[in-house]
Write a structure and sequence with these properties.
By secondary structure, this protein is mostly beta strands.
């Protein structure tokens, strides 16, 4: 949920609430100049992760599967992301090992190429690093991450080859609301 408060003609406050917790507050000074270049996109994490073996063949019926469900948000200003966060639960399809993850502290990397695209209307593609928490504690630091939003409908959060073992190199998928 996004709440916007226009306190004065020179200050706009945007508050993003995720699973009943305030997770992001952004103040826009002089909104008449900035509001046209600021956008907040939010959505749901809806994904499945397979516990794939490191090598060899396998039968998909016999491997562990995990469901992911939660919320994400990204705020963009002047055609650059200024914040990305996700908060979601992860549990095996048998209802075991329920835990929570957050993607926090997203920062664009210096080596982000000019090929990254940010079209505030429908598509977003950015690369950076972020931290990943498990049950409130940072477990993985500075994970190389690619975030892509397609046609203002879907999001893919993809990790580099050295991704956290929890996601086993598999992207996290979601929808844009």
């Amino acid at each position: 949920m996004i709440k916007i408060f226009n306190l004065y003609s020179s200050l706009l406050i945007v508050i993003i609430i995720c699973q009943s917790n305030i997770i992001y507050i952004y103040a826009i000074d002089n909104p008449q100049n900035n509001i046209n270049n600021t956008l907040v996109k939010v959505g749901k994490i809806n994904s499945i992760v397979l516990d794939l073996p490191q090598w060899g063949t396998f039968d998909v019926k016999n491997i562990s599967k995990y469901l992911l469900a939660g919320d994400w948000n990204i705020s963009l200003s002047n055609e650059r992301p200024i914040n990305f966060m996700a908060n979601f639960s992860m549990v095996s399809i048998k209802g075991e090992n329920l835990h929570n993850h957050q993607f926090i502290n997203f920062k664009i990397t210096n080596d982000t190429s000019k090929n990254d695209q940010l079209h505030l209307d429908r598509n977003v593609k950015v690369s950076g690093i972020m931290d990943i928490t498990t049950n409130g504690y940072i477990k993985w630091n500075k994970i190389k991450t690619n975030i892509s939003i397609y046609n203002d409908n879907t999001i893919i959060i993809d990790f580099d080859d050295k991704s956290p073992d929890q996601f086993i190199g598999q992207p996290v998928y979601g929808i844009v609301e």
